[in-house]
Design goal:
Elements (H helix, E strand, L loop, with lengths): L3 E7 L4 H10 L6 E8 L6 H8 L3 E3 L8 H14 L4 E4 L8 H6 L4 E5 L12 H10 L3 E8 L9 E8 L6 H24 L3 E4 L2 E4 L9
Parallel strand pairs: 1-2, 1-4, 2-3, 4-5
Antiparallel strand pairs: 5-6, 6-7, 8-9
Helix pairs in contact: 1-2, 1-6, 5-6
Bound molecules: glycinamide ribonucleotide (GAR).
């Protein structure tokens, strides 16, 4: 099985980008992060890409008149690098159906809650909403991206307990540790051909068995 060529799309800090780069260095992952695409010119994730020797393309959305033009520029870059899998990692733009369909079932996203709860929020807002709702368990979700925001088929989730003393910041830190593990696991499952999407469900198949087994 040939190695899967991965691009990460990010807008900010880049800890998930870094976790994916490190995970892909294990041969059993069967993937390689070949490109970082960033839409914010001074995003800290760019320094991580430099340190990890991953090529980066800066494509600022503000430089384009329309979302369609911005997305065409990203698609051209992804195609130029023969990318098979796109991983959104703190990428703070919503992708149109044109982009999503160009990589149908080949775009994953990490979200810092147990979807479908707390969908449609970003970063720290998610953890604030978790505390305000009083739920006792939270976590993270890696899902395939479809044309509905934060609603695509779920590949991997990891859960943690909410503690009495938690703040949004302390929750964000503990969930982030789980995010790095969950994303690495999901990408490995994808790159080794073990994820089968059936409607809203993602089946994780054993090596050597058929999805119906
Ligand atoms: C992560 O916590 C990710 O789950 C979240 O942004 C953070 C990016 O951190 N994404 C969303 O909230 C998407 N709705 P990172 O740049 O260090 O990977």
């Amino acid at each position: 099985m040939s190695r899967v060529s991965i691009a990460v799309l990010a807008s900010g800090r880049g800890t998930n980008f870094e976790a994916l780069v490190h995970a892909a260095r294990h041969p059993e992952t069967n993937g390689e992060v070949r490109l970082l695409v960033v839409n914010v010119p001074d995003a800290p994730v760019l320094r991580r890409a430099e340190a990890e020797h991953v090529p980066a393309a800066v494509i600022p959305h503000r430089r384009f008149k329309t979302r369609a033009e911005f997305e065409q520029a990203m698609l051209a870059e992804l195609n130029r690098h023969n990318i098979n899998l796109v991983c959104l990692a703190g990428f703070m733009r919503i992708l149109s159906p044109v982009f999503v369909n160009a990589f149908a079932n080949r775009i994953m996203n990490i979200h810092p809650s147990l979807l479908p709860m707390f969908a449609g929020l970003q970063g720290i807002q998610v953890h604030e909403a978790v505390l305000a709702a009083g739920v006792k368990v939270t976590g993270c979700t890696v899902h395939f991206v479809n044309t509905d925001v934060d609603a695509g088929p779920i590949a991997v989730q990891r859960a943690i307990a909410v503690r009495e003393a938690d703040t949004a910041e302390s929750l964000a830190l503990r969930v982030l540790v789980e995010e790095h593990q969950a994303y690495a696991e999901a990408v490995k499952l994808f790159c080794t051909g073990r994820l089968h999407i059936e409607g809203k469900r993602v089946r994780v198949i054993d090596v050597g068995s058929s999805p119906g087994a």
